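Data availability (excerpt). The following record was deposited with the supplementary files.
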Amino acid sequence: MRIALLLPILALAACAPQQWTRHDASAAQAAKDAEECQEMAYRKMQAKPHPYLAVDPLIVQDSFARAQNRYPPGVFVDPYGDRFIEEGRLAADCMRSRGYALTPK
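Predicted structure:
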């Protein structure tokens, strides 16, 4: 019974919006630092050579005739995921190095 009550609460807590905060930084300073980190991550990813060819997804239909995008496996697909994910990771690392932490709004 307790688990049945706890699971929805945890699910709602996981969906809470988060923001970067630091105890000695104002909201304007946090926004400026976040913008600088995002710009740095963008520039870093643009400068990085991409050794994999861009592969467009295959559009296939499932059993309900719904179109789905599926990327084909093979040597020309990026095994580390999307470059946007890497860019977000770099920006988050930059913010953490500046002393910020993600906290619920």
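Summary of structural features: The chain has a mean pLDDT of 80.
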